[in-house]
Amino acid sequence: MSTPAAPASSRTILGHPVGLFILFFTEMWERFSYYGMRGLLKLYMVNYLFTETRQVLQGGEETQQGDPDSVWGWGALQALLPSDGGLQAQASVIYGWYTGLVYLTPLLGGILADRVLGQRKTVVVGGILMAIGHFVMASEQAFFLALALLIIGNGAFKPNISTQVGNLYPPGDPRRDGAFTIFYMGINLGAFLTNLVCGTLAAVLGWHWGFGAAGVGMGIGLVIYLFGQRYLAPDNVMKKAEVSAAPAQPLTSNEWQGVVALVVLCALNIVFWGVYEQQGNTMQTWADEQTLWPTILGFTIPSTWFQSLNPFFIFLLAPLLDRFWAWQSQRGAEPTSVTKMAIGCLILGLSFLVMVAGASVVGDGKGSLLWPLLCTLMLTVGELYLSPIGLSLVTKVSPARMVSMMMGMWFMSSFFGGILNGYLGTFYDKMPKEGFFLMLSGLGLLAGLSMWAFNKPLKKAIGDV
């Protein structure tokens, strides 16, 4: 179990340490930068970067001549991408590898923090690299270099900001799950705002204005983090410096059981993330190509605003679910963490049945926003049952001396899920849309049933948490 030190300040806001809100706003701006870039990424590749007829403004009709071969590395990479399915399939694979790799590098970032730099310094290094990466996106030739900087920077940042939330609370503190729910809302506040800003700038002024705004957001988050250091708990390296060095102890039997249980959960989560991440991939393509967006006072809402639906529903639903779980807890009926996660997978699978119906109605034309909206509403409920619960579970179950590494291990499921997402997306133009969405639904339901089947052995390994 993690054994965090007391935070540097005893001041509280809403019953939680001030440090929680420093981390909240840091993560909010980091997610602003990540989701702003992610929301534009696939459309940018398909409609601008890798085509000879470039869409000057996102969603606009004005075009200009482009040269895909000027992008460093594109010719060599293209030979490795699917030849059938066209540019949509190729962009889907690149999108999948990018969203996957940003969750592979956190394992290395966690090891770096646990053994060398500590969580605070590693977060700063990651934030700087990501800010640089967003600004490098202004160079079309350096597109893949920018992606590499973002992937490496995220690896340093992501696991070590999350573990610092857990560091603010002593073992057994009942506020911990609530803290991760608040922190998760910070993630989604950034995700909600960014597409209204970055997506609109890309539609009104041009693609690179959207990417530049993402870089500014990362810079703001880094400044908040640096100025809020005194409110954070000492990290692992700082705590080692405060006590005499002691030889590392091997993991106990109970600790090994917890580690193995977390690895099993990571494996079961892969399919969840592969289906869930279609939001920024094929669902964004549907929103762009087959959804009628309203026009208000002469301004047609950009399709990239679709990416703000999910975080909006999180604001709406997270407090309601928190109250619902508290109501269940009072009656001794609250599900365990693993049961909640299984429920999340099942709801995710059911959500894509909405798109099966929508694809049947819309056909090859354009249809109502209601279809992707209802799908996203249900998908968000599934996410809330799985993602913040998993983050909290890692800090509860992981041995203290390897908590950042285990958080990185947790994100490994998102790495493999991201890769799966990209290759699933290649079927979008190869299958009837009803069949494609039915496939996603089946995968989500299968993941939920598999997790349910493993519930008893996992509960035995990690306890009733």
Looking at the structure, what is the overall shape? Answer: globular
Which strands sit side by side, in order, in the main sheet?
1-2
The number of distinct helices, counting runs of at least 4 residues, comes to 17
Approximately how much beta-strand content do the residues carry?
A: under 5%
CATH topology name = Growth Hormone, Chain: A
Number of β-strand runs: 6
Mind describing the biggest β-sheet?
2 strands, antiparallel
Explain what you see.
It is a single chain. It is built from 17 helices and six strands. It is mainly alpha-helical and 465 residues long. It has a single domain (18-237, 252-293, 303-462), classed as MFS general substrate transporter like domains (Growth Hormone, Chain: A), CATH 1.20.1250.20. The strands form three sheets. Strands 1-2 form a two-stranded antiparallel ribbon. Strands 3-4 form a two-stranded antiparallel ribbon. A hairpin with a 2-residue loop joins strand 1 (12-13) and strand 2 (16-17). The longest helix is centred in the N-terminal third of the chain and has 32 residues, at 18-49. The two termini are 12 Å apart. Mean pLDDT is 87; it is low at 1-7.
Label this structure with key terms.
70% helix; two-stranded antiparallel ribbon; 3% strand; 465 residues; 6 strands; Growth Hormone, Chain: A; two-stranded antiparallel sheet; mainly alpha; globular
